[in-house]
Amino acid sequence: MHRTALVLFSGGQDSTTCLAQALTRYERVETIAFDYGQRHHVELQSRLKVLEALRSQFPHWAPRLGEDHLLDLGVLGQVSETSLTRDVAFKMESSGLPNTFVPGRNLLFLTLAAALAYRRGLEVLVTGVCETDYSGYPDCRDDTMKAMQLALSLGMDKRLLIDTPLMWLDKAQTWQLAEKLGGPALVDLIVEHSHTCYLGERTQRHAWGWGCGHCPACELRARGWERYRES
Asked: How many domains does the chain have?
């Protein structure tokens, strides 16, 4: 039975929900994030507020919540010509993928997370990737995660599990999962402190949280919130 986990924690709705679930499942949970020159750099501050709020509002989880890690991954921003790392408008590319797709991002994130997990003695990598309500990113698909789990386990010569609790959930179901895990208090925490907006906007407050309200990430989160509230 797995007892320790490393959560890839950006501070958004999905990763906060994944972190909450990990805290119900594993005895020791650490977190990791990456600074890759993202336009929504504010998420790196928001995630610290989420961690603080989780510790204070859910004291039964606090003893399980261990060290937080932030890695400088500026090289990814240097090689990425995307709307998440450059000041360009959101659009669809001829490939059929949105220009918010950062090639190799999740592959690199998981590789570095696995290296850290190896050193820290952590058995499970938890990530909020999903191929139900998503933008078609190939590095969020279940097949990619299975392939990465095999490659990392072979390359590290150590069995690693990649846990993807949101893989088959839409955004409304992700809100429902948060409520199941931590009740209205966790839902309110996610609304108030987590960050999703690709533009890094935190001056406009909506029912579902802070954001510009019109970027792809905000629209997805807002639609999920509406369906969740109607259910």
From this structure: 1
